[in-house]
Design a protein that fits this description.
Strand order of the largest sheet: 1-2
Number of strands: 4
Structural class: mainly alpha
Largest sheet: 2 strands, antiparallel
Helix content: 55-70%
Length: 356
Amino acid sequence: MDIRLLLIPLGFAVIAVTLADVVLTTLVLQGGGPVTGPLGDRLWRLGLRLNHGRLGPSMLSYAGVLIMLGIILLWVLFFFLGWNLIFFAQDRAVLTSQTRLPADFSSRVYFVGYTIVTLGMGDYIPGPGVWQVLTAIASASGYAVLGLSISYLLPTISAAVSKRRLAGEIAGLGRTPGEILINMWNGRDFKDLQHHLSSLGSGVLNLSENYLAYPVLHYFHSNTPESAAPVSLAALDEALTILEYAVPETLKLDRSSFVPARGSFTSLLNSLNTAYIRAENAPPLPNLEELRKYGLPVCSEEELLARTGHLLGRRRLLLALVENDGWSWELLTRPLTALPTREGTNRLSGGPDPGL
């Protein structure tokens, strides 16, 4: 028995793993394939470590595109390797079209290459019988892999744009939980925020689905915290926590708008927790003293701590989300800077002014 025939099952194993990874990554909403999922995560964490090594804050902005292109290149290379193993298993697997003699090493590589990209060159032909069938299968599967890879690019870029837009919409309300609440406080209640929650909630839910549909989306980094979705999302969720547990019952938002928005954040954190982020520590609670200075009726820090004990896991995920995107939680605890408005109330930079 020719020992080279063992290359056939080895080649099919490489092809099967590659196809499974392509399908699971591009078609199945589970957060990445068995190969490229862990690979993307390791490459991203390497980028985070290098960025902390003072290679510049802009370095991570290229990580998403580079990781995405690297994953596609890996698919093509492994697929190419698998079919090469198969067509190297027998001398007469690939023949010269004119002489019908077995092709040499470089010619077989050339034959496999143009077969899986469906160019249809005629310099070399498959051997008779099973090799002709395998050539047809290689061509069809190559077309499928290349098609799925290319079709994966444009929706991912579109999802990255939507992610950045959502961050900007939230940052427009305020850059920290305190800024959001002060900007939305009209002196009587927080009804102004209620008008935004419907669209923001649907945007967060859409982002949650996009993270699962396009796993590499997690690695698209923004250079400014105002355009970074993890920072803005954490700020808004912390603001909602304060609204739910630190203000009097009469000032709480209508449950019909609050609950769906809160649920969309839960869905996002759950999807990321299974695929990307590892939560270990919890961040400090928001500083309520600054809110009191602006006239917001909030409870004491001790009361807030007692009421939010069950949210420890949720807030761990928020901290992990922010830090895993290359940012610090200190961005959410920055001192508030007040700017006077025509209404005579204190509004903060970065938030909308209804009088304008």
